[in-house]
Amino acid sequence: MAQRRRPVVNKRQIARQAPPTRTLVTLPPAQRVVPVVYGKPFILMEDAAKNTFIYQAGNWVPYSSTIAECRQNCQVKALPQSVGKMTRYEVRCPE
Predict the structure, then answer these.
(1) Residue 80: exposed, middle, or buried by beta-carbon count in 10 A (0-12, 13-18, 19+)?
(2) Are strands 59-62 and 42-46 parallel, antiparallel or unpaired?
(3) 13 in any annotated domain
(4) Within a domain: residue 17?
(5) What pTM, to 2 d.p., does this model score?
């Protein structure tokens, strides 16, 4: 039974290849990001005129900021259920 020949490396082919370059890239030290701790969630409603309301003491009371303002510093999640023509949002502000 014939044996397989082992491949022979051609020295001329190795000489034509570019030598491997070893470059060390120095990365700046990683900055640790402090995790944000959010408080208890509360429900906001937004109507078609972009007015927001919060549920307090059995009534929907106008809320001071809009959903766009809440998104800048709070965690806002749109809920799939809508009441009438108003959209519900779950808002969690940082503590």
Answers:
(1) exposed
(2) unpaired
(3) no
(4) no
(5) 0.63
